[in-house]
Design goal:
The chain is built from 7 helices and 8 strands. It has 224 residues and is α/β, with parallel strands linked by helices.
């Protein structure tokens, strides 16, 4: 019950105020923070991975949970028509301006485990920084829903567990008492197993900032 309560308070209902949403956006895009450095590196890797594929204006991309639209500016370089989705309307209010206005089909409030979107309706789905925040049952439900919606490619980023990262976490709790680690990370191999069980082929895994960050990017392709 405690883990479910943490999911409710720390993730599902965590950004239901405009102030909290604005603080989140600033922390990842404006402040001199480690999160901003990781976000910059993440965006470079995302651009590289998306550029490996051939896309057209007929392709739709789903950014979920879109948060404050960190992915938005990158998508100006690609022809997708875009739907941004998040559980928090306050986050989406800040996200809307980041996407190419002529290709943003809408910002849709939805729970990633039961979105209501049509099956196989997105050529590409991007899921940034979500899976490490939720317990295993929510991870599985989200991956199942994403697999239902995806036609071709899914790109996920999440923090993973490892002996090195546990040591880093212990160190940070000593030197930075306000440091908040990912609440539900699991080993990379476990995430790969869950992705494969949901119907994906794991094409590539890339550490966003090797050794220094627990964040990994997984490039998935839908199995036919």
């Amino acid at each position: 019950m405690q883990r479910f309560d943490n999911y409710e308070t720390d993730t599902l209902n965590a950004y239901r105020s405009r102030q909290r949403a604005a603080e989140y956006k600033s922390y990842h895009t404006k402040d001199w923070s480690w999160a901003r450095i990781c976000t910059w590196r993440e965006q470079r890797l995302l651009h590289h991975e998306l550029a490996r594929y051939s896309w057209s204006a007929d392709d739709r991309l789903l950014d979920i949970p879109c948060g404050t639209g960190i992915l938005g500016k990158l998508l100006h370089s690609f022809p997708f028509h875009i739907i941004a989705s998040d559980i928090s309307p306050e986050m989406m209010d800040l996200a809307r301006v980041e996407y190419p206005a002529d290709r943003l089909l809408g910002c849709v409030q939805a729970d990633i485990t039961k979105t209501g979107f049509s099956r196989c309706s997105f050529a590409c789905i991007v899921v940034l920084g979500f899976l490490h925040r939720v317990p295993l049952d929510i991870k599985r439900a989200a991956l199942h829903e994403i697999s239902t919606l995806a036609k071709r490619v899914v790109i996920i980023t999440c923090s993973v567990d490892s002996p090195l990262q546990r040591l880093k976490k212990k160190f940070l709790t000593i030197v930075r008492r306000r440091h908040v680690s990912a609440p539900c990370p699991v080993p990379l191999q476990d995430i790969i197993i869950e992705c494969e069980a949901a119907g994906f082929k794991v094409v590539r895994t890339v550490m966003v900032v090797p050794f220094l960050s627990a964040e990994v990017m997984l490039v998935l392709e839908k199995r036919l």
